[in-house]
Amino acid sequence: xxxxxxxxxxxxxxxxxxxxxxxxxxxxxxxxxxxxxxxxxxxxxxxxxxxxxxxxxxxxxxxxxxxxxxxxxxxxxxxxxxxxxxxxxxxxxxxxxxxxxxxxxxxxxxxxxxxxxxxxxxxxxxxxxxxxxxxxxxxxxxxxxxxxxxxxxxxxxxxxxxxxxxxxxxxxxxxxxxxxxxxxxxxxxxxxxxxxxxxxxxxxxxxxxxxxxxxxxxxxxxxxxxxxxxxxxxxxxxx
Length: 239
Prior knowledge:
Order of helices and strands: HHEHHHHEHHHH
Distance between the termini: 56 Å
Oligomer: single chain
Number of strands: 2
């Protein structure tokens, strides 16, 4: 077999995994929406179809670098992913998750702000904002250019920050669930949590809804840190 085929197969397999993860998570929360708020998405079926089509392209783009890195890790020991629980102190496990989330959030905040520059918005980011209002299917609804900016983050971090493979799974799970729940178009968390001291620093649908309402604010992915530091936090949207 040609030496490039295992890399291609790994990339395709990872794209399939990303697409399946998207379908399961977005589909699950769309089902929950129908149960909790019957008819909430009833008038949005054409929009949802568009979101799914763009998201499947995004899954392909996300899967390519992830598949190449997975192949390199398994075959050649690339990356700083480790499997031995005793390789680093146990206290480092949650620290590594937080480090990845903060680094990803930082990258997302600044690239997201860039995507709201008129030229880049017109070329790429308008695809995501065509979801009015966003639904559970919109989390990966990106133009391929924007998908590329998101696809490189975690593959780059695994070369820089050591992380146990199980903790990497936690990072990916948090990334997927928060991406979907922040776009559902309704707030699933209790108001006492959203308005708590912890909720003041963590992004939920209420915070991201304000971004889809006003565009030029609330750019974060997981945390409100950069929005607050840079004066772009405009509070919570109304549901």
